[in-house]
Amino acid sequence: MNPGPEDRALRRARWAITAQIAVVVSLLVAVAGAIAYGTLLSRQHAEADRALARTIQLGTGATPPGCVWLFTPFAHAPAGPPPSGMPLPSLAAAVPSPGDVHTERQPIGGMTYTIRVENRGGVVSQAFFEERYQIQDRSSLLFGLGVAEVLALLASVGCGRLLACRAIRPLADALRRQRTFVADASHELRAPLTRLHTRAQLLARRATGRDAEDLAHLVRGTRELGEVVEDLLLSAQACERPSLEPVELGLLAEEAVAAEAVRAGQGQVRLAVTRERRPYVVQGVPTALRRVLSALLDNALGHTPPGGSIEVCLGLPDDRHVELRIRDTGVGFPAADAERIFERFARGSEGDGRRFGLGLALVREVVTGHGGTIAAAARPGAGATFTLRLLRADPT
């Protein structure tokens, strides 16, 4: 069985958690490495500065420590030819007055040196500290940090994957139980619904007059309920979205209005469809779109008082879309709630309280799954209008 959208979503969630843990661990190791490298660099520079200051203080009479050269106007130390490029006469201008000290770092002959220039009683001395071994220490530290980063990344991926699987397992179990429940419930409902539908058909064939019309609506309702159960069973088994097919939205609207005609009559609400005699074909799942229209009409009937009206209008706003509007003269709702009414389990304060129920949230999910949009507009006491827009299909 191919993995369904829930399984793919869980897999993506596991990898997302794993990646986040790996990124966090890598960043922590990188920050720790940067702190260690900065601390080492600062300490090396401080040691070089102290060594150069001490060398200038002792003068050429004392042998400088290894990797240090001292130059004065009269001599240099240690004895022997100095490295090429030393001293640097231009640095004398940096310490024009007695007591002035200047420190800088620059490459000379392919090697980096820390240079201290000091004016002691009018005598300018230059001390050079070769950073060969300090550079080697820093390179070794960077290599070690790189290895630690790679090992930490690998370890974090493994641990993150393990933790992600443990964190997601309860959700996966809940989804599996939900899928099993839907499949079992749908399977158990199929047989009694089939019997009910068959008996309703038999009664409709025997009835005459008004009873025959009412029983025809009952047959249609039981068939639609059976289609809902079948969709639930297929969804639980395959976990895939049903394939889209051309659907005549105008015909679905007329069927939905006819199915609610009795309820509208009992509530003294006028219910009508306004459309041109032309096809309004969209790409969709007939049973899903039928439930969308049923939910919207149920919502409108629940909030329209006796003497009111509900109008279903179909139109073609452009060449690419089919538009369906359900306009009622009910209690309406504040304009600020135009988005909130599509949230799950939000509840309204007018009518029978279902304006903000779960149905509208499911309606939006179905419409969005069809690549369409749905919007609501209303004012308190002035009714509400729900505008459904779907992509138009080839009428043929």
UniProtKB/TrEMBL annotation:
It catalyses: ATP + protein L-histidine = ADP + protein N-phospho-L-histidine. The chain crosses the membrane at residues 15-40, 141-164. It holds the Pfam family HisKA. GO terms for molecular function: kinase activity. Its main location: membrane. It is found in: Cell membrane. Keywords: Kinase, Membrane, Phosphoprotein, Transferase, Transmembrane, Transmembrane helix, Two-component regulatory system. Its EC number is 2.7.13.3. Gene3D superfamilies: 1.10.287.130, Histidine kinase-like ATPase, C-terminal domain. It is an enzyme of class 2 (transferase). Residues 184-394 form the Histidine kinase domain. PANTHER family: SENSOR HISTIDINE KINASE TRCS, SENSOR HISTIDINE KINASE YKOH. This is histidine kinase. It comes from Amycolatopsis melonis. The lineage of its organism: Bacteria, Bacillati, Actinomycetota, Actinomycetes, Pseudonocardiales.
